[in-house]
Amino acid sequence: MHKTALFTLLGPFALASPTAAQDQPQSGFEIVHQVAPVAGTTWVSATFQNGDILVFDGLNIERYDEGGSLLATLDTLAQFGFPSFIELAPDESYAVLGESSNHELRSIDLDGGSSLIGTLLFNYDGVFEDGDHLILSAAAGGFGLGNELWRAQVSTATLTQIGEVGGASGPLAIDEGGNLYYATVSDTFPPPPLQTDILLFDTAVLSSSSIFDETDAKVVASGLAGGTSMAFDVERQALFVAENNFATGVSRIRRLPAGSSTGTILVEGQSFFSISGLEFVSDAGTAVFEPFQPSGHSTLRYHTSDFVTDIERKSVQPLRPTFSLEGPGTTMVGDFDASVEDGPLSGFAVIAYGPQALFDPMEAAIPFGGIPLFLGLDLPSMTVFQTILSLDAAGALQQSFFNSGGLFGFAAQMVMINADLSLAGSSTAVFL
User: Global pTM?
Assistant: First the structure.
């Protein structure tokens, strides 16, 4: 359906490097190194909407600004506890941490101090269900005895078991409807290569008064390499899963859109590294977390470590194709080259242009094929170049043109098309 609609738009026109040692993003995305405010191999963090970073290193609870400068030490624990997780409340009014040495769960006052919620043996992960409740994943019965799901009410410091699942402790994520995702993890060593299922416990199961198990869940994906962390994109209804298998060396982030049991590999990590701490954030803008969209509106943050050197903090975000012009014909009569980088691999492009004076840098977001198409060109005066250009296997193209003197005062963008003929997005703009 998308293919037909795209070529209806183009009606009159017919077809005529990072190093291997780095994490590799899916085409249409880029990886950006973020500030790691502390050294070490075990700390956990949560990020505020304004970019501040809340860190728990097992002893200190600290708040840093986006640039890594210390803003405040909120508390220091009496003794070290191996960090399990740290989560901000939905309204960012407080936070909760878990650690698995002393098995404490603590509520963090963001003005300073923390208080004990309770102890939960070998707590592993936690996710806010609402402003006062978290669901927790913990091997509360001890190693090799399966995993349990608990609900914590922060205001009353109450812990209640709600579920149990087989295997080792797995990560949690929750969608906007309150449905819970859980990634199973094998408790055998070495772990099987395809050990993980993604289970969905809906709100009816979560609200039951009886303890639930795997038989109460819907399996939304199976055969993943592992599961250490998850996050959910409410706008696109997509689940992100960090897959780690320390027997095979697999280290990746998989994106599972709604209805897909396989999804796509968003990040292929370095072999035998751990990926953890997934956090997805987005603003109220119209750009979405899809390949080739404008960046800066939605981001997936994560930690990666080889357990020896310091944790690296990174983010993956959409990478928009870059349109550029070069040659004497850009300023006078003569030849010039139009080039695109970071476009869809082996895809196609169509040049659209219009008066520069009518170009809107805010760009209109035109709904098309399920994703917004961003164009700053004035649509009534826009012209589409009557040739569809081919990109190479790296998503690049270069096309030569001759400016006879009539191409000044124009703005131009490229409409990008995937190799399967679906819409990919648009490029940045150039000006003549």
Answer: 0.90
